[in-house]
Amino acid sequence: MLKVGIVGATAYTSLELIRILLRHSNVEIAYLGTRRETNDRISDIFPSLMKTFDMPCSRITECDMPKNVDMVFVALPPTVSMKYVPKLLEAGIKVVDLSADYRFSDKSIYERWYKEEHTDSSGLEKAVYGLPEVFRERIKNAVLVANPGCYPTSAILGLYPLISKDFVCTDDIIIDAKSGISGKGRESNEGTHYCECNENIEAYNVGKHRHTPEIENVLSLISNSDISVCFTPHLIPMNNGLLCSIYAKLKENVTDEGTREIYNVFYSKEPFVRVKTDGKLPRTKDVVNTNFCDIAVNFVNGRAVILSSIDNMTKGASGQAVQNMNIMYGFDETEGLK
Fold first, then answer.
1. Strands, E, within the chain: which ranges?
2. Which residues fall within 8 angstroms of residue 280, CB to CB, at 6 or more apart?
3. Is 264 exposed, middle or buried (0-12, 13-18, 19+ CB in 10 A)?
4. Which of 179, 146, 139, 155 has the alpha carbon at shortest distance from 78?
5. Distance between CA atoms of 14 and 75, rounded to whole angstroms?
6. Which of 268, 298, 267 is nearest to 282 (CA)?
7. pLDDT value at 303 more than 70
């Protein structure tokens, strides 16, 4: 059995990780680390786990190391994660990091958007971006996987076939995205109070959301050219679920039917991507609590209108993290996720 730990065990993503790992036949959860002063059981923090999983949490600092674990999921905030990951790697523990701290090989991009000096250049050199549908072969041999953000997962999977085939004008891509409130994290703030979120939809961080450079960076790697996107996220009054509406201008020689076929070919063997057909469109209701990404492509006035939907906490975070672990250790990629 692979012994795994979770550092940052009080996050929403950690609860989802625990639920998935408890049904994984090759894994034992051996450690839960938290930065809290108290020494609670995990079921005290998440009462839904009571009598299912009551493991005590351990207080962890930057100098502490989990004992008797083979790999660790790090579910700490950006700028905090990189203070813990180096010592885990030094101890020979493989890591899947759910923060943004290792998603950019060029640390200047990170520092510009996260307003913090990146202190682990060595880790950046080791890190592999953990989008299996694009980087599976590299993930297999990784010691550190940078789990993608939720919006980038949905947006990149939606655009990947067209970008890789050079079917769209890369200077005119618009991404309109909507996510459930859990995407804002568990820390309390006025913007996530029930009275503020209920019966409301609103855009936020227009033109300055930190997932913008992540989307641009990965798409640029895929296309071997500089790509910029106009990305606007919105919060909608539900817990989980994410839908991207993507508008990309097609190049003149590209046909509608040829484009649809490209999606079928690209994703025919992917266990967690479902391409919609017969005019059916993705809905958040169909992907919540699953690791699936549902995609449909339509055509309006010379543009591809790509709809891509995921559960922001599963395929957009914890489910994809377990999918990456499965690839790293040679398990069935769907283990624990179907």
1. 2-7, 27-34, 58-59, 71-74, 94-97, 128-129, 144-146, 168-179, 202-203, 229-235, 242-250, 273-275, 293-300, 303-310
2. 296
3. exposed
4. 146
5. 7
6. 298
7. yes
Alpha helices by DSSP H, 50-190 = 85-90, 107-114, 121-126, 132-139, 150-164
Q: What residue ranges define each of the domains in the chain, with the CATH number in brackets?
A: 2-126 (3.40.50.720), 151-312 (3.30.360.10)
Report the C-alpha dihedral over residues 320, 326, 332, 333, rounded to 10 degrees.
20
Measured CA to CA, the distance from residue 57 to residue 68 in angstroms comes to 15
Containing 240, the helix (H) or strand (E) segment is none
| Residue 148: closest CA among 161, 130, 134, 174 | 130
What are 16-75's pLDDT values in tens digits? 999 999 999 999 999 999 988 777 999 999 999 999 999 999 998 888 888 899 999 999
Pairing of strands 303-310, 293-300: antiparallel
259 touches 242 (CB < 8 A): no
Is beta strand 202-203 parallel, antiparallel or unpaired with respect to 229-235? antiparallel
105's CB contacts (< 8 A; 6+ apart) are 124, 125, 127
Q: Are strands 2-7 and 168-179 parallel, antiparallel or unpaired?
A: unpaired
pLDDT, one tens digit per residue, over 256-302 is 777 888 999 999 999 999 999 888 999 999 999 999 999 999 999 88
CB-count burial class (<10 Å; 0-12, 13-18, 19+) for 90: exposed
Cβ partners under 8 Å of residue 19, min gap 6: none
CA-closest candidate to residue 248, choices 214, 215, 280, 291: 215
Residues with catalytic function: 150
CA 15 to mean position of chain CA atoms: 15
* DSSP result, 296-321: EEEEETTEEEEEEEE-TTIIIIIHHH
Instruction: Supply the DSSP string of 65-86, one letter for each residue.
Output: --SS-SEEEE-PPTTTGGGTHH
Q: Residue 202 is encoded by which pair of tokens? A: 């609103």
